[in-house]
Design a protein that fits this description.
This protein is about 45% helix and about 10% strand. The chain is an alpha+beta fold. Helix 9 packs across helix 10. The model has no long low-confidence stretch (mean pLDDT about 90).
Length: about 270
């Protein structure tokens, strides 16, 4: 690398640090025409404003739920703690839920209620599902070529978009109300009335079918079977998992078969292997 290239690289790094972290510009950045220090304020503001916009886009429902002022404060704290490091701004915010969890535990006012952490998890999972790789979505007819004695050894590959999100609060009704609210409609000026958050540990299933991102809450048996599906277990192992759920009245094999049929109807299975 030539001396000129070294100097340019040093200037780029100094400018990035001064813009993102508020570091001193140093002698590598030229003074303004009147001999004063480099005027970096506009760039620092633009840097944070653009990242805040990216967070609001990636966490659309969370931003609506919190309101502009509270979300801007959250974004500012997150940008300081986790500056953007990915080449694509689309992935900015991958640690926001983790950051919010720590902030909620610290009770410093940055996260007004811990249920907001779950809204962030749900928003991020749906965005990730939309961007997941394409794959076939098999239907029930995919089982037609297999004899019943072969079912025990079958291994099911989930669609790449499938995600399991562990939630602590029942936030789905609020998420849906905010998602369906249109402020441009005649009666949409006021925010929708949201149900009070209730603590309810459960699992949310998120996936994509075609261009549509889908989600639904799942009961403990299906959550256990989905864990097995994600781990690559065969159908016999899924039946064993079903047997460990105490409050399910159906025999394990019947429950596993019922859930498998639902998965195929939902488009959650992309491959079936012997």
């Amino acid at each position: 690398m030539t001396a000129g290239a070294d100097t340019l690289r040093a200037q780029q790094l100094a400018f990035a640090a001064a813009t993102a972290d508020g570091a001193e510009a140093g002698s590598l950045l030229a003074a303004d025409p009147r001999g004063g220090p480099p005027r970096l304020g506009v760039y620092r503001h633009a840097y944070r404003a653009r990242l805040t916009e990216a967070l609001a886009d990636n966490f659309e429902i969370l931003a609506r739920a919190m309101g502009d002022e509270a979300f801007a404060a959250l974004a500012d704290g997150y940008i300081t703690a986790h500056p953007s490091s990915h080449p694509s701004i689309r992935w900015f915010g991958d640690r926001l839920a983790e950051f919010m969890g720590s902030a909620a535990a610290a009770d410093g006012g940055l996260v007004p209620h811990p249920a907001f952490v779950d809204l962030a998890r749900m928003d991020w999972a749906l965005r990730a599902a939309f961007d997941a790789a394409d794959a076939p979505a098999l239907g029930r007819e995919a089982l037609a070529g297999w004899a019943p004695p072969d079912f025990a050894a079958l291994r099911l590959a989930p669609h790449p978009s499938m995600q399991l999100v562990r939630l602590q609060w029942a936030i789905e009704a609020a998420w849906r109300a905010l998602r369906e609210h249109d402020p441009d409609e005649p009666d949409g000026a006021s925010e929708p009335e949201l149900p009070a958050p209730e603590q309810q540990p459960h699992t949310l299933l998120v996936w994509r079918r075609g261009l549509d991102t889908l989600w639904r809450s799942v009961e403990p048996t299906e959550a256990a079977l989905l864990d097995g599906l994600a781990a690559g277990e065969c159908f016999a192992e899924l039946c064993e998992r079903a047997a460990t759920v105490d409050d399910d009245p159906l025999p394990p094999a019947q429950r596993a078969a019922t859930v498998l049929a639902q998965w195929l109807d939902d488009g959650l299975i992309s491959r079936i292997d012997p």
